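dumping this here before i forget
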Amino acid sequence: MTHLLDIFRVETSGVLWVESAATMEDAKARVQELAVRSPAEYLLLDHHTGNKLVVKADGGDRTDR
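structure:
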């Protein structure tokens, strides 16, 4: 299976790659799990479409195209 989404944690010094996911739903679910231990903003990058989604620790998100 090819992973088409990358998950990054947004830090003051830039972004840090965390892991890959197969679907947007999987990536969002994984971010919610990660945010429990490490509250932060996370960036999801869809390699297929080029879309970026910023997910906040409070569950909010915004899409950057």
